[in-house]
Amino acid sequence: MELHEKFRNVILQQRNRTDFKLTQEDIAKEAGLTIRYYQKLEAGIAKRPSLDVVNRIAHAFDMKLSDLCKLIEEMD
Predict the structure, then answer these.
(1) Which tens digit of pLDDT belongs to each residue from 27-75?
(2) Where are the alpha helices (DSSP H) in the chain?
(3) Is the Cβ–Cβ distance between 35 and 24 less than 8 Å?
(4) Angle between the 24-31 and 35-43 helix axes, to the nearest 10 degrees?
């Protein structure tokens, strides 16, 4: 599985966690991204987000960048 596919899967899982259901709009707003760009990330169309974008998404999920990266590494 390619890195952008792992990233896509992790952000989908995080957004749909049962302890907090968030919309794409919620995450995009919290991360300071356009809804369109966030949708492209979830769809796997935007394949190379910057480290800054990944960090902002991690914070939108109320997690550290390192924790999000760990989930991505463990994704298979």
Answers:
(1) 999 999 999 999 999 998 988 899 999 999 999 999 999 999 999 999 8
(2) 3-15, 24-31, 35-43, 51-60, 65-74
(3) yes
(4) 120
**What number of residues does the chain have?**
76
Question: From CA 32, how far away is CA 18, in angstroms rounded?
Answer: 23
- Nearest CA among 53, 49, 61, 8 for reference residue 32: 53
Share of the chain above pLDDT 90, in %: 67
Rounded Cα distance, 62 and 9, in Å? 17
Does pLDDT of 18 surpass 70? no
pTM for the model? 0.87
